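Exercise: predict the fold of this chain.
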Amino acid sequence: MYEGVMVRDAALAGPALRAEQRRQMWGFWAMALGSFMAILDIQIVASSINEISAGLSASIDEIQWVQSAYLIAEVIAIPLSGYLTRMLSTRVYYVVSALGFTLASAACAFTWSLPSMVVCRVLQGLFGGGMIPTAFASMFILFQDSKSRAIPQILTGMLTMTASSIGPTLGGYITDALSWHWLFLANVGPGLACVWGAWTLVDVDRPQPQMFKQLDLWGLLFMAIFLGGLEYSLDNGPRHDWFNDDSVAICATLALSCGLLFFWRSFTAAYPIVELRAFRDRNFAVTSLVSAMIGVTMFTLIYLTPVFLGEVSGYSPLQIGQVMMIQGCSMFLCAPVIGSLQARLEPRLVILIGLMLIAAGTFTNTLLTSDWGFAQFALPQALRGAGFVCSFIPLTGLALGTLPPSEVHNASGLFNVTRNLGGALGLAVINTLINQRTWLHWQQLAESTRLSREPVRQALGRMRDALQPQLGSASQAGSYGMLAEQAQLQAATLTYADMYRLLAWSVVLTMLLVPLLHKPRDMAVAAGH
């Protein structure tokens, strides 16, 4: 009799369990979609800056705030998400973030001036920054063992990487087909779907309203000034000759002083706004550093390749988008292979394979010439696409897979912010070095193109003869201009080759960190319940 009842209950529990698992899966995908949109919006305006500038009657220097405002707000919101998630619950905080992001996106489309656009982009970044780490953390809470988490982890990693890669491409297509307003209006439908999905399907924890009374306002203020000032300094320093610009010098000083105060509050406050104790876990500390280095490479390459194609190869935005799409397509195609590798190989080995692919693709770019185009960039882009998704997916598992559930939300914010800060640091360093190396190569080429050299005089003669039918007596001056233009192109090409070489070696150095990691224990998250 007793055994019969147990069999019957088990039979009834089977369908109920499967239904609950399906509900959790759909709820998680609603959250993952929102995370994808938030990451996408970091880069989606990059290829349409000129159109937005014209629409808002802003100068090129002023319009950069459309990008900077979002990045500064997002980098502040990401580490704050852990505290707010525990205070409001995962479902409520995510729904508030997704709804705020959707409304702010719609508002961006109807802005009438640069100040109104900047305000809306700040709101969009603050709410978008809440969705990214919340989705990552929920994956480790909803799917507590490595087997059930395998597919969500692969697809989430793929979405994260592709969102950054296809942002400029997708933005260019949308602007060409419709207008720049649709860069933001396109978020409305998916955003509302995320709100509905998270509210009806996600229920993983309960709010802790007492945390509202424990809110460390001084820690929040110090963190906001520290991260905001740091992001502003890294973003604007290369454009304004760093500390020669008053705003950069002031923000850097504020970032340094408030950074020290923020760390002091984090270690001394009874209820710190951001718990830094996750860094005591060796896996988390090392994976965060590796994530920062991957951010350096990924965000810098997404910036560097389009600039080279536009400046040196003379590609249109549409042609640049086609080259950049190779990396995104490679990520999608390689995702199933990554899943198979994860099932057979140790995570550290999969990460090393990914880093080697990134390094190989980037070293290939060091051979570039001014004639490089789609055909020459295809292989490096494909290798890097496969490498990024191969290294990032297991890295997330190693970062959060050894932490107890009580620390996952907070650690997810810290892990994500390291990638963004790494990208900001990489862009700042590369932009500074580009100016320096271009000047150096220009001086070297000037030495080799003196008129006293016979090959130079012969080249000028050929140019003059070629220009004679069109310019007549002005062909001599035209030949000098053509020589200067060729020298400028060669100086730029040599500079970009230097940048690719520097990034490739940074990936090689990152490989040295991987042996410091250890494989997470299965059910590490579950063991914390």
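Check your answer against the key: The two ends are 34 Å apart (CA to CA).
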